[in-house]
């Protein structure tokens, strides 16, 4: 079992991890190692053939594979080391990372560790969908890998569960594989993507969007034959013949290493709790990208990794690890907020999501019955983040109770 040391170890070679590696090298950090369990770097964009990647971070638009390749090349050209096919399995008692890779088991010590492991979609079992267990049930990531990396035909008639950005991406992937998406379902009252995406899919592919609808049963022996759908408002059931069911969205951060390392999770995001500088509650451990929340576009994750690099450099050059901050909590219908640890010198913006779509929203930020601020947002929704001003951080009592975000007034989307 070999033991090595790096200034910074980054776990995950997706957009956040690669952008952080590139920035750390630009800032002069000598040894930066990126650990990735897959055999290729780049993360999810590797198997997303559509355009739309890179606008915010690279200021140009690329297809997913080109964006992933650009990020990997940029990190390596900056001098970061990428170690692929290597799984980080845990931590030793004295804080080193435990690795398993092609050369066997190893341990690695690092001055700082950045967790950039991303998120995943909940599988059928976690969604508690009853019925048989036939072939033809998968999530978006599996679908995209089969189609874009394996060039396989996956089916002919599909039902897509979900109506977020990634759900419409799944419809496009199915079209490229020669499959028709006969229906999209969401338990919410509206889709959570752009109106143009919804209209385009319906016009081009003839796909029905079934709102307030859930899959109540999966039918098939050996191969999926059909699904039963239930309308949540009326209780009416219907059957849709299909040979493919694609489960999209419903994200879970890949937080296992944070848990094993004793870092606190935020109850709303289920990702590591962080402050504005990407500190977790474990000294020396930072987190960035979609491990913090599911899921933002790749370029937003990359910007998160880039911001984390400055905080990592400060830690390496002697800045003390901050004392425990004040947790931020959300009251329904708000679902989560990131960053979710408040400090007096906090950030200027927070990302917020809700459990249902609301317009003309007025949000109160309170601590121990004291109003720190009120803010107005044009909209909050489950599938798209809203940006909330964080200028109230200076008014937080560091010895007080949690800061709570709640909706004072709003109107539902018609």
Account of the 3D structure:
By secondary structure, the protein is an alpha/beta fold. The chain has three domains: 2-120 and 251-316, FAD/NAD(P)-binding domain; 123-247, FAD/NAD(P)-binding domain, CATH 3.50.50; 326-412. 20% of the residues lie in helices and 34% in strands. The protein has helices at residues 15-26, 64-77, 140-149, 165-176, 195-205, 256-260, 298-316, and strands at residues 2-11, 32-35, 81-83, 87-91, 97-101, 104-115, 119-121, 137-139, 157-161, 180-186, 208-211, 213-219, 226-231, 237-241, 244-247, 251-253, 285-287, 326-330, 334-338, 341-342, 349-354, 358-367, 370-380, 386-389, 403-412. Strands 1, 2, 3, 4, 5, 6 and 17 form a seven-stranded mixed beta sheet that branches. Strands 8-15-9-10-11 form a five-stranded parallel beta sheet. Strand 1, helix 1 and strand 2 (32-35) form a beta-alpha-beta unit. The model has no long low-confidence stretch (mean pLDDT 94).
Essential attributes:
single chain, 414 residues, alpha/beta, FAD/NAD(P)-binding domain, 7-stranded mixed beta sheet, 5-stranded parallel beta sheet, 25 strands, 20% helix
Quick description:
Helices cover 20% and strands 34% of the residues. The chain has seven helices and 25 strands.
Helix/strand layout:
Elements (H helix, E strand, L loop, with lengths): L1 E10 L3 H12 L5 E4 L28 H14 L3 E3 L3 E5 L5 E5 L2 E12 L3 E3 L15 E3 H10 L7 E5 L3 H12 L3 E7 L8 H11 L2 E4 L1 E7 L6 E6 L5 E5 L2 E4 L3 E3 L2 H5 L24 E3 L10 H19 L9 E5 L3 E5 L2 E2 L6 E6 L3 E10 L2 E11 L5 E4 L13 E10 L2
Parallel strand pairs: 1-2, 1-6, 2-3, 6-17, 8-15, 9-10, 9-15, 10-11, 18-25
Antiparallel strand pairs: 4-5, 5-6, 7-16, 12-13, 13-14, 18-20, 19-21, 21-24, 22-23, 22-25
